[in-house]
Description:
The structure holds 2 protein chains of 2 kinds. By secondary structure, chain A is an alpha+beta fold. In chain A, 29% of the residues lie in helices and 23% in strands.
Amino acid sequence: MLCLNPHAIEAGQTMNTSEKTRIVGAPVLRKEGVQKLLGQALYVDDISREGMIHGATVRSTIPRGLIRSIHYDERIDWDAFTVVTAADIPGKNHIQLIFADQPCLADGVVNHCDEAIVLLAHADKHKLREAMAAVRIEYEALPAVFTIEESERREQIVWGTDNLLKSFLLEKGDVDTVWANAAHVVEGEYRTGAQEHLYIENNGMIAEWSEAEGVTVWGSLQCPYYVHKSLLAVFDLPENKVRVIQTETGGAFGGKEDFPSTLAAHAALLAMKSGKPVKMVYDRMEDLAATTKRHPSRIRHRTALDKNGKLLAMDIDLATDGGAYSTLSSTVLSRATLHSPGPYVCPNVRIRSHAWATNTVPYGAFRGFGAPQGIFAIECHMDEIAVALNMDPVELRRGNFLHDGDTTATEQVMREPVILDQLLERALKESDFYAKREHYARENASSAVKRGMGLAAFYHGAGFTGSGERYLNSIAGLDVTPQGKVRVLVANTEFGQGTNTILSQIAAEAIGIGYEDVEMAPADTRVVPNSGPTVASRTSMVVGKLIERAGLQLVAWLREESGLEERYSASEFFAACARYGAAHGEVVSLCRYEAPPNIYWDDKTYRGEAYPAYAWSIHVAQVAVDTNTYSVQVEDFWAVQEVGRILNPILAGGQIEGGIAQAIGYALYEKVILQDGHMVNNQMTNYIMPTAEDVPPIHIFFEEIPFQHGGFGAKGIGELPHDGPAPAILNAIRDATGVGYHAIPLMPEDIFAHFIAHEINVETVSA
Amino acid sequence: MSTFPAIRFNVNGEDREVRVAPMKRLLDVLREDLGLTGSKEGCGEGECGSCSVRMNGELVNSCLVPVLQAEGASVQTVEGLAAAGKMHPLQEAFLQCGGAQCGICTPGMLMAATQLLSVNAHPTMTEIREGLAGNLCRCTGFTRIFESVIAATAKNREERIEEPAHAR
Ligand code: FES
Ligand code: FES
């Protein structure tokens, strides 16, 4: 069967990856695809354990205050329920992440609405609901802060000694010497809102406890070893007494990176106290109200340019709202900082960045991890500069692009090829950018629907920032089962992006066997080594390389010790494995992470190789703004990118399209409305994501430059597509209407308010 | 043991009988009482479509249907799409074209697509978009889901999709 959409074929034509490889680069089918299509894949809520009961969470109803007392209404027969509070925690009452400031259960004080205070469990979900309503908590309210500005003023200290979760100062050259002599200085302030992941499967976990086995959890999660580490602390158990198993996971996008550690601890506490398996699956309202979102940001740019539009200095002030606890705010801030100067050369750069605490649910990881915020600001600002200088925004960018040999803001030398010019040319050509822009400019004058074209240029750093991969020190590999299959041993998880498929492809390619000869070991901490978290677009590049090496290492061992010939068939390979296994007891090939050479990073000065590799992209959006309804439709979208080697064109295309659709929501649809720090539109009815009718045709084009330190040449791909759409769309809206908007989500009411405030009189000529 | 009267309906060609609270959601009856966990709950309020099943030839959100409304009805779920060990052409197309990523929306999406093709064997792109507008997918951006539906209709031209009798 052929996929007949012309776009799919278009994308396929740009690929020549299968020239040297058989399986890598081929559109092999998703490894777990058949179970998913038959409805047989088991997600956490599809699983039941013998004697299992259900758990629920009583949460704070105020944003900040002291817990005075907890009343359990006498109407309820509490003996029939398992009740857990902070007092029941055997180990440390904190969720171990980067810091340990977030309690597992609030103890005496709450710092945000919807913070967990009491856990209940019962076999009957209806009784559980009644009991939840019968727990009354008395508070002494304390003043709360809800915005970056309130937190900055420090009239109320709600975290640490100064409300500051983290700050960075990055300096290159000397910006202060430049302003006086610059031909142009352009300033702007840009804001981005929170965004909900809106994975269609809510967070869920099942836990069991026994004296002999300790804690076992099954759940919807991205990072088994994060959950493992956190449970060790909460239960004060040795490593072999905590076991974490990922179930089929129905979308994550970063939303199941840190939060599952909390939910796993809650379910396990109830399991320990009740002695029964406990399932906790959030409904949509609870998931939306109580779990992490993307960090809101406020970014200010001050930019000096010479008379030809060359960048002379960039002074960037970046602030994020981190919520009530530190969670991942420091690393999100780091990535936001490192992406905020955009893909440009500038001799003088200063970035001051701060993550502020507020009394809202902690913000967490979300696809892009700070980069979409930073890139939104710089890419809107570039169009602002173009207007100020009366330049074409395309030429302004082209004149400042990074090239091979240039240095970034952290003074990282671009040693790998940078082909932004080529990507830009392709994007302009494929989208027919100039012709359309001119055409719409003529047409708009006499139409109530204004059309425009906008563009964004950006990079996304693949893998952990700076020295992160060295600290992770990941280990991954392969073994061979008695049934004669090669098994991939990784803690990296599948949640739709294709981990199972690409790692199986890499293993099969490296060893020289068939894709069907490879299977994935379960993501179970008792079975697989810690190959690091499934985040930061690191799986293809970092873990893929480990699997490639482990495969080559295994073949070398078999040649040396087990008589494997130079050329061999799959059955000869497995026969050699059997001989090797007989001699050694098992066939296991593991490899540990090795940093690419010449990687140097200084955490103190924030200088050096911020990322081992960058993916590059140009996005072009075509929009229509209806000046009667103030609604914006993205009518067409083009994405040209260089992400290293494409391991699987279907999965790669799916990542780009899905990321773009999610980012269209970020730009135009998705608004988290907080009242006193509680999300009030916590339903799919009023938190709106793009539907099948809203997503435009998306045209994707890959240029491939294999990266030698990534798995068969791959760099990262998953987060890149979320970076560009928001600024490309707002730049297109500017092209259509002449108005530069500086904040997202940009809702029809914002456009309306602007038109009213500026008395823009739209001559409405109905079509 | 249960005091509830029996409710009888046909699921994927089999006659079933349950004794549950009549207001229990069809979704929960399918998942908990009949062990058919293919249909998923994404929102519980009729917005996401991941609980979509076909009932008497109509697409319904099973999270909004009290089971008593299913009395005497014929219900088709994702588990009833493949016949005799062979995937339905839509399932095959979703597999080939990358129409499923995390897979959580997929059962509902397949039912919506089945419904669409049962009333319109060769939908246009606009009709596909409309037909699937009640089913949210957060992973794919929908593009490859549209491609999958188109691919299935192309196949349909060659070897007419035979609908199992119970799904009509
Ligand atoms: S669960 Fe039924 S529509 Fe979302
Ligand atoms: S495939 Fe994940 S929501 Fe559709």
